[in-house]
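User: Hey, my collaborator sent me this sequence without any context and asked if I could get a structure. I don't really work with proteins. Can you help?
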Amino acid sequence: MASSALKALTATTGNRTDCWNTPPEFVADVLDFFGGELELDPCSNDEQSPNVPAKKVYTEKTNGLLHPWTAESVFMNHPYSDSKRWIPYAASQYECGNAKEMVLLIKLDVSTQWWKSIAKYPWIAVNRRLKFGDGKGAAPFNLLWFILEKTWSNSRLLLASMEPCMCQLMKWHKTPRIRWKRHYTK
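Assistant: No problem. I've predicted the 3D structure and written it out in structure-token form, which is a compact way to encode the shape of the chain:
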């Protein structure tokens, strides 16, 4: 973990680690999105008493980056100081078919290389700064939900519960006559 990245992430929160438990109200939204049951959390805080209840969890010790994410449903709230590894890996696990549906809670940062690996998927911007776990203050950055699913049907459920400030529920396709053309997904 890069210490300068961790210092920047924790400057205003009082939390000096890269373990940020997902706020309980968001855990409830994730479980609703997946119909009440989650198969995998690859970035869990604890195997015995996880913040996000999932059938299978990987912790910092068991390292979710070392395993295929074979599951119908995956939720990831990863260590934000290491997005350059976690986010492309999550996208690759969805794209190769290991993970059938995914919800990712990530830091908004379009200036990064890892953004390119996920930018084509629908997202919902969270309309407030979140307080994670026992932190004294809110996170010093904005967050997005990324939704990786084939049917897009659950996206509307999550969107309705989030009161987003902005969202992208569309796909962009390159066409020969127009450089980029926007197609809304049904």
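In plain terms: Residues 83-95 form the longest helix (13 residues). You can pass these tokens on to your collaborator as they are.
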